[in-house]
């Protein structure tokens, strides 16, 4: 749903809402939209109130025209949920969406019943990764978004299954190419400059879900695995022969993992 914006009001993000029950908020990653969850919504909405969100600048939102932080993105999600009268929810974020979910948890922990990091991390970027993102900005400035996305998306999928998953790769690639250049640039800066949020995991009084790909080229498995023991209550799923796009690479398995996590949250709420 696209919400008309009134002057002076906080941004209300584009979203879709399906089903009834415990609110489950799904946040997409970089160069994605809420449609990344298209195969999850029909199943999850049978038992839950599923809210998929286009983060600022992405999907059906207007392009970004100014700098923003991951924390700013979390504030936007907060204002949307307030508009929808969602007092508490489970929030699951893919990649950059996980960064936003962690920032949300840092500011609004009382509004969460559970948090899912779907191929994501609480760590800030390493120096090497920050430098890589700066080089990416130079590349986009020189060659444009479409050329960047062509190079960016395919390596997110496990090499051994790329031929099998060619339709899914095309779907994600086409989605990425539709992202406005200004949004891509500001999102890269926001990810590059985000702070470490491992303390959010330490302080969490709600369960944490980790879904990780052992062959993820975007989120280093060894680096990420150090986080598994930080939360008091964590569920960890490690996917072999899987890269960064588990919702497509291992659709049935990851959907089952999310469903079981939601069931556990309800039982222990």
TrEMBL record:
<dbReference type="InterPro" id="IPR029058">
    <property type="entry name" value="AB_hydrolase_fold"/>
</dbReference>
<dbReference type="InterPro" id="IPR000073">
    <property type="entry name" value="AB_hydrolase_1"/>
</dbReference>
<dbReference type="Pfam" id="PF00561">
    <property type="entry name" value="Abhydrolase_1"/>
</dbReference>
<dbReference type="InterPro" id="IPR050266">
    <property type="entry name" value="AB_hydrolase_sf"/>
</dbReference>
<protein>
    <submittedName>
        <fullName>Pimeloyl-ACP methyl ester carboxylesterase</fullName>
    </submittedName>
</protein>
<feature type="domain" description="AB hydrolase-1">
    <location>
        <begin position="23"/>
        <end position="250"/>
    </location>
</feature>
